[in-house]
C-alpha cells in the first residue's frame, strides 16, 4: 500500500512521476503555498500540507484556478491529473 499523500515526501515523489518538481513556494490568494512546476508552461500545482491542492494556470502574472480541493491518496492525485489531461511518464511501477 502506498503512503498517504499527506506526507511531504510521498506527495513530492508521486508528483514527480507526472513530471512535477518542487519549485519552492509563493503566495496565492494571500496565503503561502508550496509550488510545483509542471510539464506544461504556465501551469502550477500548489499545495498546502497536509492535503489542500490547487492547480493554477498563469497568463503572465494573472492566475486562473483550474481545480482545487483535497488530495489525500494516489487515486485522488490521478483524478486531478486526468482532469488536466496530464500523463504519467515516469511511473514507479505502481500506484
Instruction: Catalogue the unreliable spans.
Output: none
The shape, in one word, is globular
Topology as a string of helices (H) and strands (E): HEEEEEH
Report Rg.
Answer: 12 Å
Q: Please, how many domains?
A: 1
Describe this protein's structure.
The chain has one domain (8-83). Helices cover 21% and strands 40% of the residues. The protein has 2 helices and 5 strands. The chain is globular and about 40 Å long. With 95 residues, it is of the alpha+beta class.
Characteristics:
single chain, 2 helices, alpha+beta, 95 residues
Briefly say what this structure is:
With 95 residues, this protein is α+β, with helices and mostly antiparallel strands.
Topology, element by element:
Blueprint lengths: L7 H10 L3 E8 L2 E7 L5 E6 L3 E8 L2 E9 L3 H10 L12
Antiparallel strand pairs: 1-2, 2-3, 3-4, 4-5
Amino acid at each position: 500500500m502506498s503512503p498517504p499523500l499527506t506526507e511531504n515526501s510521498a506527495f513530492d515523489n508521486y508528483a514527480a512521476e507526472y513530471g512535477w518538481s518542487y519549485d519552492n513556494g509563493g503566495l496565492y490568494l494571500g496565503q503561502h503555498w508550496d509550488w510545483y512546476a509542471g510539464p506544461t508552461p504556465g501551469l502550477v500545482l500548489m499545495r498546502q500540507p497536509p492535503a489542500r491542492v490547487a492547480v493554477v494556470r498563469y497568463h503572465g502574472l494573472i492566475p486562473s484556478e483550474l481545480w482545487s480541493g483535497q488530495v489525500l491518496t494516489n487515486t485522488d492525485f490521478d483524478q486531478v491529473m486526468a482532469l488536466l489531461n496530464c500523463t504519467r511518464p515516469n511511473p514507479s511501477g505502481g500506484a
